[in-house]
Amino acid sequence: MEPSVLLLFALLVGFVLLLVRGYPKARGHLPPGPRPLPLLGNLLQMDRGGFHNSFRRIREKYGDVFTVYLGPRPVVMLYGTEAIREALVDQAEAFSGRAPVAVVKPVFRDYGVIFSNGERWKALRRFSLATMRDFGMGKRSVEERIQEEAQCLVEEFRKSQGAPLDPTFLFQSITANIICSIVFGERFDYKDRQFLRLLNLIYQTFSLSSSFSSQVFEFFASFLKYLPGAHRQIFRNLQEVLNYIGQSVKKHQATLDPSHPRDFIDTYLLRMEKEKSNQHTEFHHENLLISVLSLFFAGTETSSTTLRYGFLLMLKYPHVAEKVQKEIDQVIGSHRLPSLDDRTKMPYTDAVIHEIQRFSDLIPVGVPHKVIKDTLFRGYLLPKNTEVYPILSSALHDPQYFEQPDTFNPDHFLDAKGALKKSEAFMPFSLGKRMCLGEGIARNELFLFFTTILQNFSVSSPVAPKDIDLSPKESGFGTVPPKYQICFLAR
């Protein structure tokens, strides 16, 4: 019998057996949810517009904590501000595990600072936070790096002389250069071919990971991984980025000065040397490559995508951009660089940036968690290793905290006196022990890049504001804004 025929026969037999036996019951006492079908799980309840749209409908019937079957495996969904905070903050340790994302698992393989678990994750996170702090995160030196990069961007925009352009790769370039200066110890010219290739690979990977096909892959990865699809392109893309990182590590090894570490890679190599006699150390080559990939990918794509959405919103709502520029003129003027000290004096601008982050909803379903032990939560027993999705979109669009959750409105973050108003539902970087370790750097980038651009330029679009469509190009693991053209007109 042909292997393909044999495989098809085995699948049909398995399907019939599941129909006869019914769906296997999960251990513990999981929250309620829609009844799954054999093999398919709850696939038929999923919306092509993004699975988080489907979760919204399911929540209306089953409440803030419910179970969805992604193929044969149950995943507990946390919907709304209170449910997410109760899990990730009040029971932070129990929910501190990281579950895989199927389309990138073959590359990350439980290594690195984002997708590892247990002692490996704790050691790498402590090291990464301390090292990034040493090389600028949270210190004035990173402010200076962002200011310098912002001026390079201003010069690049001036060259366009107000002609329409696609800002995608320029916004990627500035955010990538900040993380590159910390990780690789260098910045790249905006026309550097190798740099542009890496940025294109990251952009393409983020878009493919957020596609509907990648969401379906999450259901049936064990079977679909053998077939053609987006997952194969994602693997090739990330392998090419890893190859570049590997070459950079070799150059660092050849030029390493133990008394003067230049960046994250140098510092990691010194730690590797220090622990080379420890056979249980987590500081080895594989964790170095995947940690650098994690930092480079996250540090580039998140802030640049937020900026892309932010300026699309400024084109859609020009009166908001004008109010920001008025505040810039009053507080900063035109003859000095914006600084982080200005942020507390610019509540409207700060509120606009918060609202851009809320509205752009960058990682709608959050990066998957899992419980690291049997966990009692809201009367349900979640067995150890149960996957948990904190639906961040549900907090960022929580009507209990935001009066018009589906509308862009900076007043969501302003009190009656015009001061910045904090909100417990604002969690674009997630919460708890797995909170994004680059939050500080991202917040600084968004403020300094946003204000520097609007200090120097007014923005306009070839398309009338009323005709600008804010609908995302993709909405799955991440939210990818639509492509657009923008004109930067010198003020």
TrEMBL record:
Enzyme Commission number(s): 1.14.14.1
GO BP annotations listed: epoxygenase P450 pathway; xenobiotic metabolic process
Protein's UniProt keywords contain Signal: yes
Domain of life the protein comes from: Eukaryota
Leader sequence residues: 1-22
InterPro entries tied to this protein: Cyt_P450 (IPR001128), Cyt_P450_CS (IPR017972), Cyt_P450_E_grp-I (IPR002401), Cyt_P450_E_grp-I_CYP2B-like (IPR008068), Cyt_P450_sf (IPR036396), Cytochrome_P450_fam2 (IPR050182)
Sample GO molecular function, one term: oxidoreductase activity, acting on paired donors, with incorporation or reduction of molecular oxygen, reduced flavin or flavoprotein as one donor, and incorporation of one atom of oxygen
Pfam families referenced in this protein's UniProt entry, alphabetically: p450
SUPFAM superfamilies: Cytochrome P450 (SSF48264)
Annotated binding of heme, by residue: C436
Catalytic activity field: an organic molecule + reduced [NADPH--hemoprotein reductase] + O2 = an alcohol + oxidized [NADPH--hemoprotein reductase] + H2O + H(+)
Subcellular localization, as worded in the UniProt entry: Endoplasmic reticulum membrane; Microsome membrane
Cofactor: heme
GO CC terms, sorted: endoplasmic reticulum membrane
UniProt topology in membrane: Peripheral membrane protein
Entry keywords, A to Z: Endoplasmic reticulum, Heme, Iron, Membrane, Metal-binding, Microsome, Monooxygenase, Oxidoreductase, Signal
Main location: endoplasmic reticulum
Keyword presence, Oxidoreductase: yes
Sequence similarity: Belongs to the cytochrome P450 family.
Function: Cytochromes P450 are a group of heme-thiolate monooxygenases. In liver microsomes, this enzyme is involved in an NADPH-dependent electron transport pathway. It oxidizes a variety of structurally unrelated compounds, including steroids, fatty acids, and xenobiotics.
Protein name per Swiss-Prot or TrEMBL: Cytochrome P450
Origin species: Neotoma stephensi
Taxonomic lineage of the native organism: Eukaryota, Metazoa, Chordata, Craniata, Vertebrata
